[in-house]
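Re-run with default settings, no changes from the original entry. Doing this only to confirm the output is reproducible before filing.
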Amino acid sequence: MKKKPVSKQITINISEDQTIIELSSLVQPFQSEIYLKKMIRGNVVEVNLKSLLGLITLQLKNHDQIIVRTVGEDCEEALVKVMEFLTKGNK
């Protein structure tokens, strides 16, 4: 049975040693589709987090407001993992 999509708005807080390659690797095991949505130059851009090119397009930096949206069987777990990675900063 498919679960309902879940989403959450977060503020990016990443440390300098965190990379988009690590983030991409983190989400690959999930069955769910995972999307990030961000406003870029007045346009809303949504990319699939499993796409490295999509991640590069977003140019994520600290204090960006984004929406994380997940759809699929393990969507809640995927959402938590992505949120933890993108907000842990220098903790």
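Residues 42 and 82 are 25 Å apart (CA to CA). The chain has a mean pLDDT of 91.
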